[in-house]
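Chain A, query sequence.
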Amino acid sequence: MEELKSPLQENWPDTLLTKAARIKLVALDVDGIMSNGKIYFSAKGDELKGFNILDGLGLKQIMAAGITVAVITGRNSPLTEKRMKDLGIPHLMQGREDKKVALQELVSTLGILPEAIAYMGDDLPDLPAIRYAGLGVTVPNAYWLVKEHADYCTEVSGGNGAVRELCDLLLTAGGSLNSALTPYLEP
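Chain A, predicted structure.
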């Protein structure tokens, strides 16, 4: 079968692919990354937010390829806890305003070097973690200063498949995009 390539691959410079090939841990913010950043409340005070299904499958694909996934968020949300449990994400750190410290705790626990971490966030609390990680990633709707310091800004916005785009980048760089996609093309 012919090698499958993301149409975005032509926009990925070799330096980005080299950094992406080293990644063993992906850490993600939630609001603005895994969701569109909007939080809705019902009249009873129930919190609602949407997660993109494309991101969920991408995360399962990178976990199957041996990349560990963690979520670090400043908010405490039962919705986030349920979604991460449904996806099988092993590391969920909620209520963490200092995301770099949380990321350093993961580094210590998992024995992973900072160069082997991709961190994806969109606002100022994410900036220290983006600068600490070997691959800092953000989205087009991120705060301008975050975009200035990220190694990569996705084509699509947070909550609209941006995490999936990162997953495709990592799978491409690691040489496992074909094996992740070909089962869906078999008769």
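The CA atoms of residues 69 and 138 lie 16 Å apart. The chain has one domain: 22-175.
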